[in-house]
Amino acid sequence: MAAINHPFPQSRRVPVPVRPGAINWWVLGAMLIFGIGATLPVLQNSTATSRGFELQALQAEETRLKGDIKQTEAEVAQLTSLQRIQRRAETLGLVPGIDPIYIEVAEPGPAPAKIPSEYLPEPVRNADEPDSWWKSLFGWLSLGN
């Protein structure tokens, strides 16, 4: 192998004009995007943390309110107890009734009954009404079994 004794050619440098104080907008834009990208996770973490504290405060408030409700229910139960009502009636001078009076009303009630339908008697079905066609079909099919 033979080596050629030639020096490497010198590359010519082309001077790049640099203006002092000029702003490179590409570099500035890249730095801005990088800054926003680095700041967003911090802001999200901060928001999640503050929401967590708000949630804890609301849960504590809910627990306190549930306790208040239970306490009020206990007070209502104590106030409506039969023994308390009897003691209060005695302090007011009330006594149990000895001979009740029963009154019979001969007048009929309002035209449509004003009581819930669950307490009304079920309508009686007349035996004269024929069964529907599908019931008779099912009856006919079940006879074959």
Please provide a written account of the structure.
The structure is a single chain. The chain has 145 residues and is mostly helical. It is elongated.
Short description:
The protein is mainly alpha-helical.
List keywords for this structure.
3 helices, 145 residues, elongated, mainly alpha
- Supply the number of helical segments: 3
Residue ranges: pLDDT <50 for 5 or more in a row?
none
Biggest sheet: strands, sense, closure? none
Molecular shape: elongated
Helix-strand sequence: HHH
Secondary structure elements and their pairing?
Elements (H helix, E strand, L loop, with lengths): L24 H55 L2 H11 L40 H11 L2
